[in-house]
Amino acid sequence: MQRLAGKVAIITGAGSGFGAAIAKRYSEEGAKTVLVDLNPKQLNGHLSVLPEEAIAVRGDVSRKDSVAEIMQTAYDRFGRIDIMVNNAGFTHRNMPLTEVSEDNFDLISAVNMKAIYYSTLALAPLMEQQGGGVIINTASVAGRHPRKGLAWYSASKGWVISATKAMALELAEKKIRVNCLCPVESDSGTLPLFLKEDTEQAREELIDTIPLGRLSTPTDVANAALWLASDDAAFITGAAIDVDGGYSI
């Protein structure tokens, strides 16, 4: 099936993990993809296995001018933008909340929160003019159930969930659907940041909290993001979809 045939999708944080998997899945389903990341080397590596209509854009989602440039590049190349996946994220290392530096707090705010504001400012008028669109934000199970040692990260992801619902309510009349994904931790380079100590025992204890008995994978998240972007989810907006193996039950 080509569930996204003819659609143009921007995916931030596409250099690795969830973002890279979403870009791959969207391309497999016929989308023209715009991969955005701060690390162009990672992007170029992924482009080698994607169709020719996929392009890479180096961008800093924490800066308004950079977000505007990303949007303009995508529009100049493809003439429209149908899907926006705000996936780029940042976290502080697991530590007491009073020990998180102000610089790290500011980065969490800029990447996890303000980037969504910037992209919405740029995209909402364009999507309205096109007759609609889809926005997908990457939140986290930590946004619903904060973890000790991850206070400010958890708070930012709670904001993403709340913002998603508010955006969906206001943008529905413009035929723009807005949803978010709430994944549990994956076995990736960021996992050690979420654990107080990165030991085999700590990993096993985390997995024990997940009824299906494993961590998430990028493919799990990509499949959920595909469904939300497709017409199969045409009546879904304002939802926070748990991709967590039952952790939130």
TrEMBL record:
InterPro entries, per database record: NAD(P)-bd_dom_sf, SDR_fam
Gene3D superfamilies: NAD(P)-binding Rossmann-like Domain
Keywords: Oxidoreductase
Family: Belongs to the short-chain dehydrogenases/reductases (SDR) family.
Protein's UniProt name: SDR family oxidoreductase
Pfam families: adh_short_C2 (PF13561)
Keyword Oxidoreductase: yes
Signal peptide extent: none
Coiled-coil segments: none
Superkingdom of origin organism: Bacteria
Species of the source: Paenochrobactrum glaciei
